[in-house]
Design goal:
By secondary structure, the chain is α/β, with parallel strands linked by helices. Helices cover 45% and strands 16% of the residues. The protein has a domain at 7-134: 3-Layer(aba) Sandwich (Rossmann fold), CATH 3.40.50.
Amino acid sequence: MSDTRHVAFFPGSFDPVTYGHLDVIRRGRRLFDRVVVGVGRNPGKVALFNGDERLTMVRELVDEMVQGETDASPVEVDGYEGLTVEYAREIGATALLRGIRNLSDLQSEVQQALTNRQIAGIETVFVVAGQDFAYTSSSLIRQVTAMGDDLDVLASMCPAGVIARLREKKEKGHEVLRMLAEHE
């Protein structure tokens, strides 16, 4: 019998973290011996929450999720910089864990998975989102925050603590929310 540990690396910007993200983590815990959630920075996006804020949110929510659960694998949450595959290799990940919501996600994720396998030799494991999360995205949540008056409509997409933080950003007139509101 092999003593190989199967470690999944679930990378993302988590800007903000959603119930869909938490669903992927929850399900990954049942597939792998250990899950590492990597809070990174997407250079192609301007973030609403800074790295420390995103890391804090994800850690709090993961801590809540795993509290008292002994029948699933442990989860670690780390911030990282640079290429996802390099960090995955650094932590000994055997696979990247990714959530798929729809066909357009699948198309872009498969292209990325093929690239990651070609350049880094790391496989990608896809988890299909639960139907409740098929249309949830951090981008949509940021748009609703920028344009909407009642942020309670986000309750089915993200936890109350995230909504409270979004409300704070909106009340302070965060630049990203102003830009989103102007472009719509």
